Amino acid sequence: MRVPLFRLGLWLSGLVLVFNGLFPALWILFTSLKTEAELSRIPITYWPDNPTLANYQRAFREAPLARYFLNSVVVAAGATLLCVTVSAMAAYALARLRIPYAGGFLLSLVALAMFPPATLLVPLYQIFTGLGLRNTYLGLILTHAALSLPVAVLVLYSFFKTIPKDLESAALVDGCTRIGALRYVVIPLSGPGVFTAALLAFVNSWDEFLLALTLNPAKEMRTLPVGITLYQGEYLFPWPLISAALVVALVPVALVIALFQERIVAGLTQGALKG
Amino acid sequence: MSRGLGRSTANRAMRRSPRDLSERALASWLLLPAFALLGLVAVYPVLNLMVTSLYELHLAYGPKGAFVGLANYERLLEDARFANALRVTLLITLVTVPGAALLGLLLALLANLPYMVKWPVRLGLLLPWAMPLVFAGLIFRWFFESDYGVVNDVLRKLGLAPLFWLSDPRLAFWAISASIIWKTSSFVALVLLAGLQSIPKEYYEAAQVDGANAWQVFYRITLPLLAPSLFVALVFRTITALQTFDIPYAMTGGGPGNATETLAMYIRTQTVENLNFGYGSAMAVALFVLCMATTALYLRFLQREEGE
Fold first, then answer.
1. Contact B102/A at CB under 8 A
2. Which contacts of A234-237 are long-range, i.e. CB under 8 A and separated by 24 or more positions?
3. Considering the domain boundaries, does residue B74 fall inside one?
4. To bridge B124 with a disulfide, which of A14, A18, A162, A183 should be the other Cys (CB 3.0-4.6 Å)?
5. pLDDT for the residue A76
6. Rounded CA gap, B156 and B47, in Å?
7. Is B137 in the same domain as B276?
8. Number of neighbours of residue A51 by Cβ within 10 angstroms
């Protein structure tokens, strides 16, 4: 009797987990397939009566959704590239080179990058206005790269600690310069760590809202979260557009987590726990 | 890190090459970009913020302000809207941090069961984590909508009266808190799940041999060994809860009235919208101090771990 009961419990708890995690996303997916008439019907429906892609057509035609998507891609890709490059350099130095106060440097990098975005928005608005960086890709790329830096540094730091030091020493003995050892030994080996850090930096930037709203509010420079959230003030009944746009915006993130589940989980815990 | 022992022949060979960088020079060059980036986006802005908070600077009246010392901070103490925003922020923190910790712990315990197929469960934890906060806010705004919302639909089906979730100040607070708890519990669960998986199986086997019941196992083994992960998750959650912006912005815009306006929302209204940068900066400094005090706690913990 014990075993079937246990298996039933297992099924139930699995269902609870999946339902809890996926219900809002599935609901928005079903909603995006409903007609506007069905959307404004009471009592509400859960499964669409006549599934249609009309909302998706409207979302791309009536609002600059394609432009928002492009902006998000450019900003997230740029921020990821910058963040990972800068973090990998710093993490390598802290993990591998003999420098005084390496622990202090690591802590100060993490502390600086944990400055709260909600307070940074005030001076960044002023400084970026002065530098002409508001409503540009570069401004938001710099900002997002800095925000993802602590996670990336911690992930890469713990990764570099796992590469055997002997490999580099061997290269140095063979007459390689330090830069050469980096180029031919360390960089080729650091793929997995760099990739994990890149995934986290990408999701961070793709999701960021407050600074994107503050620094890039011009219609043609909005990222997806900003553009879609502002539909609320721009359309009388925005839900058909919002539901379709949300699905479009969630697809890349859903793909990333579906394909790289284990890597993201590992990276998250390294980034949050310690180096 | 004993200096004498670590010096290998490799290092000495390297030192002889005149064209190569010394270890320290290389380290400085490698660290420079990270500190330059943080200098531009974090350090200089915060210094600028602190200076601005001592000025009466209203961008609508020109780019230069008058030095007023601590006047902006005195004004904070008398500003009822600031007091309300601080109260809302602290209440959200008090409700959603323990809420997300409890729900996250439950999800992690369920996710740690021996499933034959693991990916649906992992996806169930990862999707809420990876979804932008503001999207969760938009979806839950719709869930709590009085006519078309799922919550009221369920209430009606149960024969109960529908509620005006987002236009009643008290209900709006709870609707927002519930949404934040749902969205953030997945992060807590992922961190705790990693903690659970690092607990050695032998402990559980030993407990079984000793005849411990399920509650004793949880209370005496799981919980104490999970404490470090729980602490990290709680600190992270507290720092983000103090900065709550996205979900209330999407769900109520701070309304009805200012009932659900958080500090971050009020700061943004005063500065970016009203252009009152002097006063807004003083508020931002207050939030900064609050967050950094929490971060300091976290860093002390990291340092202690590093020392072990």
1. no
2. A234/A63, A237/A36, A237/A39, A237/A40
3. no
4. A18
5. 97
6. 54
7. yes
8. 12
Spell out which residues of chain A touch residue B130, defining contact as CB-CB under 8 Å.
203, 207, 253-254, 256-257, 264
Domain of B139 in residue numbering reads as 82-307
* Chain-chain contact of A17 with B124 (C-beta, under 8 angstroms): yes
* B241 plus B173 within the same structural domain: yes
State the CATH number of the domain containing residue B186: 1.10.3720.10
The three-state secondary structure class of B276 is: strand
How many Å apart are CA A194 and CA A198, to the nearest integer? 6
Task: Calculate helix-pair angle for A261-273, A137-162, nearest 10 degrees.
Answer: 90
Give the integer Cα–Cα distance in Å for A273 and B189: 13
For chain B, the domain total comes to: 2
Residues of A in contact with B236 (CB under 8 A): 272
DSSP SS3 for A190: coil
* Residue B78 CB coordination number (10 Å): 8
From the number of C-beta atoms within 10 Å of its C-beta (0-12, 13-18, 19+), residue B136 rates as buried
Kindly report, residue by residue over A23-39, the tens digit of the pLDDT.
Answer: 999 999 999 999 888 88
Q: Name the residue with higher pLDDT: A195 or A165.
A: A195
Tell me the per-residue pLDDT of B292-303, one tens digit each, with 9 for 90 and over: 888 887 777 767
Residue B47 maps to a domain: yes
Is residue B35 located within the same domain as residue B89?
no
Q: pLDDT, tens digit, for every residue of B240-282? A: 999 999 999 999 999 899 999 999 999 999 999 999 999 999 9
pTM listed for this prediction: 0.90
Q: What is the DSSP string of A89-131?
A: HHHHHHHHS--TTHHHHHHHHHHHHTS-HHHHHHHHHHHHHHH
Residue B66 falls within a domain, yes or no?
Answer: no
**Residue B137 and residue B43 in one domain:** no
Same structural domain for residues B141 and B241? yes
Q: How far apart are alpha carbons B187 and B103 in whole angstroms?
A: 11
Out of B19, B131, B133, closest to residue A177 by CB? B19
- In sequence order, the β-bridge partners of residue B55 are B67
B269 touches chain A (CB under 8 A): no
B128 φ/ψ angles, rounded to the nearest 5 degrees: -60, -35
- How far, in Å, CA of A30 to CA of A239, rounded? 12
- Give the nearest partner residue to B132 out of A117, A120, A207, using CB atoms: A207
Q: Domains of chain A, with CATH numbers?
A: 63-274 (1.10.3720.10)
Residue B134 included in any domain: yes
Domain end marker among B37, B52, B67 = B52
The closest of A161, A143, A141, A138 to A91, measured between CA atoms, is A161
- In sequence order, the 6+-apart residues with CB closer than 8 A to the CB of A32 are A55, A56, A240, A243, A244, A246, A247
N residues, chain B = 308
Contact A120 B46 (CB under 8 A): yes
How is residue A209 written in tokens? Answer: 């809202």
* Of A200, A89, A79, nearest in space to A144 by CA: A79
